[in-house]
Amino acid sequence: MTGERNKLIWGEIVARAWRDAAFKQQLLSNPKAVLTEAGMSVPEDVELQVVQDTPTLRHLVLPVAPTGGSSTLSEEALDLVSGGGSTTPPPPATVSGVEFIVAAVSVSVTEIQTTATATAVTVIEN
After folding, report:
1. Helix (H) / strand (E) containing 10
2. Does residue 117 sit in helix, strand or coil?
3. Cys-Cys link to 24, which of 17, 48, 73, 121 (CB 3.0-4.6 A)?
4. What pLDDT score does 33 carry?
5. Are the C-beta atoms of residues 19 and 53 closer than 8 Å to each other?
6. SS3 for 41?
7. Distance between CA atoms of 104 and 125, rounded to whole angstroms?
8. pLDDT digits (tens, 9 = 90+) for 114-125
């Protein structure tokens, strides 16, 4: 439940930052305080950094590796991560003048939040 609540709070924070330049500056300079004040649960030992995309710069997050097991993936897991081993790439999608070819993507869109998860991305600069 906390994860879903945090997603809703984050969506509200993003929407407010788009509308309010002073709030956006607070978020960029002290994200932990802003998120905590908004009601999001942030562990004490976690450091946060907020970065902003621009029309020509996109940030890709490399998640923390899973713990409690081998650091290498099985062939089956590699297939899942790579989009199932498909040899036919999907058609390109264009976002703000930048073309992306995405091998596997999961996208959910709500009124206040857009989330996209890609497992393989090739960027083609126009």
Report:
1. helix 2-19
2. strand
3. 17
4. 94
5. no
6. coil
7. 20
8. 455 555 554 555
